[in-house]
Design a protein that fits this description.
alpha/beta; 17 strands
């Protein structure tokens, strides 16, 4: 085959042209790199790609993981997308669109059923269209001139903004019973309830004839099926701290109304599992037309109430089945169960029955009219995180220490005296006292140096996400606040100590969403945030810090405050994520007297809304 021989000069020209093209492509690539790195064009293109990633993250686990990795890196200075307006009241674990498809047996469908993280939308919950910063405490509580702890001149009006929760169903259906009604731009709360339409104040006065409500004997109360929690709200003037609960049901947002008023409450259902509290937590348990079938399923629900009620405590049931028409059998069965557990019937006043729980459990095998048995000693009475209800009676002897009414100090002495149940921790009493001193010092520093609103009417609903012995809450006891003390379910179960102190709280696993509505807390505090997502044995990360911060953002009110304490390395991670959840954050040194490698991040949730056309 013949070959074509080009002159050498032409070959050189072609070689130079090739080199020119390669060089030009190289310099063009460098130029584009610097344009993307150093100019708004790069930010715009990156943001555009990130928005595409955000939109697809909810539907594709791989895209979701990529987005979380990018947010954790802090390389993108844009916010996580807002959810659509359909999500303004989104509760991932109590989503009626999903839970309504589950079994009705024992109200299973109304309990917590959490989606996997990969199935949870990674977006920020928007406020309602007309949302405003909530009415401050104590104006949010009551209508009448009732003394309120920490306030010598309470307001004469009870009101919250209607547009913060524009749901009229309760006002329309229950307004004649004094629950609430709409008046101008407000919902107002006259303080009534189904069984006390003339007001909780008069109802409580009636209960005082039979129960030592005043004087500090009783401190912690549980209100089951609470409505808008007026009963718990009015007990505050007696220095009784009531935790109210109700399910997410057809009334819509009754717990959200309670929290908007500044009354301790959370969403729960007495169904197939124990409620998330330790044994013998409450000095008083109250049901006002809660419609819990106490004697059904071999008295399983009454047995659960008995587990939660402190020996020597009181149980109040108002409404069905107490002397209720066409419920003679249910009322007879309820009395039989109570007798089987040796409860003393104090009084039956109309449709209200009051019992007192005995100090011990020795009578159960002897005086048993309902076939009840004591639990085996191997059953932990305080295990209550996704723990199935037991059809056996909790032994008071199964918990170490003194915790009966009359055996523990009265309020407020019980707040500062180490409970005997603190022995769950090695050298528990010494640890308790050191923890109390530490938090008194820390809270003083928070108030003096971190420019927080603690102690003002701007802060009412507070959460401690990693409460241990409740030292943070105890140090704030003189402020006009209440604290939801959360003890992580994977950590030592110290919640019984918190209740023995006269404080309240719940068990929870922070790799799952919390059982509350969006925008319900003014201030959230968390120490050792990374420990909440780590396995305590292996040390491996169980879930994403981004997901946890998105959940904190969900339950925090606009303009609310987050305080996070952890190592400098973890605080750096949190600071990188904070802009993505639209927080304005600053980092501070720890208080001078504290030891260890800690820094403190203080963040404010920015007040933003969806565009008007999106609602």
């Amino acid at each position: 085959m013949g070959h074509l021989n080009l002159p050498s000069s032409k070959r050189n020209v072609r070689q130079w042209r090739l080199l020119d093209l390669v060089s030009a492509a190289f310099f063009a690539a460098v130029l584009i790199f610097f344009l993307l790195l150093c100019t708004p064009l790069g930010d715009s293109l990156a943001a555009s790609g990130r928005q595409t990633l955000l939109r697809s993250a909810s539907g594709d686990p791989r895209q979701r993981s990529r987005l979380i990795a990018q947010v954790e890196s802090g390389r993108y200075n844009t916010a996580i997308d807002a959810c659509s307006a359909d999500y303004v009241d989104y509760m991932p674990c109590e989503d009626p669109r999903i839970n309504s498809q589950l079994s009705r047996e024992m109200n299973f469908y109304r309990e917590r059923h959490c989606p996997l993280p990969k199935d949870t939308p990674l977006c920020l919950i928007p406020p309602t269209q007309g949302y405003r910063v909530p009415v401050q405490w104590p104006e949010s509580l009551h209508k009448f001139d009732v003394p309120v702890q920490g306030h010598t001149n309470p307001s004469l009006s009870s009101q919250i903004w209607h547009e913060n929760m524009p749901y009229n169903k309760i006002a329309d259906r229950k307004g004649h019973q004094g629950w609430m009604k709409k008046e101008g731009p407000y919902f107002i709360f006259p303080g009534g309830g189904t069984m006390f339409p003339d007001g909780a104040e008069q109802y409580i006065e009636k209960l005082k004839q039979y129960i030592p409500i005043a004087g500090g004997v009783l401190r912690t109360a549980l209100d089951m099926g609470c409505g808008v929690a007026s009963f718990g709200g009015y007990l505050l003037s007696e220095e009784i701290l009531t935790l109210s609960f109700a399910p997410r049901d057809s009334h819509k947002s009754q717990i959200q109304f309670a929290l908007e008023r500044g009354i301790p409450a959370f969403v729960a259902m007495l169904g197939t599992r124990r409620l998330p509290f330790p044994a013998f937590s409450f000095d008083l348990v109250h049901c006002s037309r809660c419609l819990i079938p106490f004697t059904a399923y071999n008295a399983t629900y009454f047995i659960e109430v008995d587990r939660l009620l402190r020996p020597g405590g009181h149980l109040v049931i108002s409404g069905p089945p107490v002397q209720w028409p066409k419920q003679d059998k249910e009322w007879a069965d309820l009395q039989t169960v109570a007798r089987s557990l040796c409860y003393e019937l104090i009084v039956v006043d109309g449709n209200t029955a009051i019992w007192k729980k005995p100090q011990g459990d020795s009578c159960v095998p002897i005086q048993n009219e309902f076939g009840l048995e004591l639990c085996d000693e191997s059953v932990d009475p305080s295990a209550a995180w996704y723990f199935k209800l037991k059809k056996c009676v909790t032994r008071t002897s199964s918990s170490k220490g003194e915790f009966a009414i009359g055996k523990i100090p009265k309020w407020p002495v019980r707040l500062t005296k180490a409970p005997s149940r603190a022995i769950v921790t090695k050298n528990g009493v010494d640890v308790f006292e050191a923890d109390s001193r530490r938090w008194a010092r820390r809270v003083s520093y928070y108030k003096s140096s971190l420019n927080l609103k603690l102690g003002t009417s701007s802060v009412r609903n507070v959460m401690d996400m990693n409460a241990f012995f409740g030292g943070f809450a105890a140090a704030l006891s003189s402020d006009p606040i209440w604290v939801m003390n959360v003890v992580p379910a994977q950590k030592p179960l110290t919640l019984d100590v918190i209740y023995d102190r006269g404080l309240i709280g719940v068990y929870h696993d922070w790799c799952e969403p919390f059982s509350t509505y969006p925008r319900t807390y003014d201030l959230i505090h968390v120490g050792a945030i990374e420990s909440l997502i780590k396995d305590p044995v292996s040390g491996k990360i169980r879930c994403s810090l981004v997901d946890l911060m998105v959940e904190i953002d969900r339950i925090l009110r606009p303009e609310g405050t987050v305080i996070i304490r952890d190592s400098p390395e973890v605080i750096d991670k949190v600071e990188r994520i904070a802009p993505a959840v639209r927080w304005t954050a600053s980092i501070h040194e720890k208080e001078p007297e504290s030891h260890g490698r800690e820094k403190i991040l203080v963040a404010t949730k920015n007040f933003w809304k969806l565009p008007s056309a999106s609602y």
